[in-house]
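Possible regression after last week's pipeline update?

I re-ran a chain I had predicted before the update to compare outputs. Posting the input and the new output here so someone can diff against the archived version. Not blocking, just want to make sure nothing changed silently.
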Amino acid sequence: MFLQIHYMTSYHASLLNRDDSGLAKRITFGGVPRLRISSQSQKRHWREWIKARILQPDSSLNALNDWYGYRTRHFFNTILKENLITNHIDETLADTLITLLADKLLTTSKNKKTNGQTVHALKSALDTDQPLLFGKPEADYLTEILLESAQQQDPQSALNTRMAAEKKAKNFKAVLQRNQSPYPAAGLEGALFGRFVTSDILARIDAPVHVAHAFTTHALDTESDFFTVVDDLARDEDTGAAHMNDMELGAGIFYGYVAIDWPLLLANLTGCDPRDWRTLTPQNCESARILIDLLIHAIAEVSPGAKLGATAPHARAHCVILEVGPSQPRSLANAFLTPVALRHNTTDNPLDQSVAALASYLARLDEMYGTNPNDRRYVSCLSSWPNATLSTLPLQTAIDHSLTRLMGDAS
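New output (post-update):
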């Protein structure tokens, strides 16, 4: 069972996502350059928006309050060390135990047999050389292990013994499950977007949410915006600007696509086998329902954050299509393989033209492959939807219908 989300958002003059040279990211599609927003950028802003909503004192989100995660190079030195210091553990002992713990967590059996190198080497002050993702349940459990070891007569030996016992489990996810720690182990970020690891004990998590890079439905058209800064305290003899620079600006209508593997998401959130997702009760699925509701709103409402102060790139999706069913997911990006021609001698604006291209391509796909009677499609759009078989709905209504269908409550 899959949920597919197609969305189109129009942005005015902005610089939504930059490359290493400071220019707008772009991609050539259909032989034509387009503006692009990377999936990494989108996911980052969606995660931050969702996390902010979860941490608000809202009773409907209380079940998710302990499920956020930390993606950082400073996990050991900041999260774990602060937890130990707060519990009155001597700083020197804390450093020793955390270093030992990190070595046990991040070293693979293969590396131990060869050269003993850790996967993510610890730098000075217990920082790792790369950001790592840990969920709050994992952080709490690791803190518990460290505190228990610190109270023993020989803390280092106690920690070695404890970690040797833990490593007999399949992985750290299994350890948490055995100790009845809450899911998801790697936090909501891991449950949604997965976690790749190469250590023995940290569990790899497959991503149930697949995010495409968004790109413009039409050809790229940018310009260099030259700007100056005036010195408010300039002397009479000072002439010209105090600073001069330029940045690339572009405007465009972006098509984006997200596919969600619903059984895998439920497995990540509850610990069940993905094949057994239908046996879950509605209560078991409620957290997933809340989370996907938040994610769809984030997709429709949250803008990439580059140059906020200079361009105010705040926009909401003009069109959102939600598809629910067992059929294999497929992007509708090829609706724009031939870029939309921004014709100015027509009453249709570029957004209407993009919606028409999307609807036309979707109809042709249905003609070629047919439709699965178990699939459902819901459209929320500010333009008139060209296909008379579908009526447009308010976004929240479309979301509610989709989630009800996912949870098996609709006919």
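Follow-up from reviewer: compared with the archived run. Residues 110-119 have pLDDT under 50 and may be disordered. Marking as no regression found.
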